[in-house]
Amino acid sequence: MSLDKKVIIITGASSGIGAATAKLLIKQGANVVIGARREDRLSEIKALAPDQVEYQVTDVSKLDDVKGLVKLAMSKFGKINAIYNNAGIMPLAKLSEDHHDEWQQMLNINIMGVLNGISAVLPIMHDQGYGHILATDSVAGHKTDATTAVYSGTKYAVRAIMNGLRVEENQNHIRSTIISPGAVSTELYRSESDQASAEALQQMWQGENKALTSEDVASAVVYALDAPERVNINEILVRPLAES
């Protein structure tokens, strides 16, 4: 299948996996509608292919923001082939450290961000009779370690939501895919409030223990998007070789 002229919405697109996916899709000829909170980064991506890219500053925790991004896609391109709910944060800490504000932020962005994306596109995809909904999950959605309890909890929730979506929407020809990366070298570590933990995570994946690049994960996303319409890729679990 060709992605040429396909219309794909990406949240969390200002950096990391989202930005890398947008750039790769542009090269494949797709039209991308990107959202994130940093307008300067979004405008840089649009400058790469002004006719193929539209953007809007978007806070995925706000349903109206996500609906606005979807409305932009429809007004500019007239259809939506897929949405990639990619926005997320990863502050890590032990439960005993009692970071209530960070817990709430993770719930709002990691879980509600995905639900808002689903809610915003489903009516349109029902009318179209087709669509593809993807979400970034994590290896942390398969296991829980010390300091990852709440983050892992949000990612377990994303897996449950996406699996439920697949069962519900299969009859409506709406596909769903979970993208679950292991360690990736992205700015996600900057959402870590504990600086020592952030530095330790980054140092862990230096030298021979190389983390995935954002481009590695973007290629997995494009693989799922480019699958034949009869194929639903339920989940892609991708780890660095040193982690696997």
TrEMBL record:
InterPro entries: NAD(P)-bd_dom_sf, Sc_DH/Rdtase_CS, SDR_fam
UniProtKB keywords: Oxidoreductase
Record-annotated membrane-spanning stretches: none
Molecular functions (GO terms): oxidoreductase activity, acting on the CH-OH group of donors, NAD or NADP as acceptor
Family annotation (Pfam families): adh_short (PF00106)
Gene3D superfamilies in alphabetical order: NAD(P)-binding Rossmann-like Domain (3.40.50.720)
Family indicated by similarity: Belongs to the short-chain dehydrogenases/reductases (SDR) family.
Protein name (record): Oxidoreductase
Source lineage: Bacteria, Bacillati, Bacillota, Bacilli, Lactobacillales
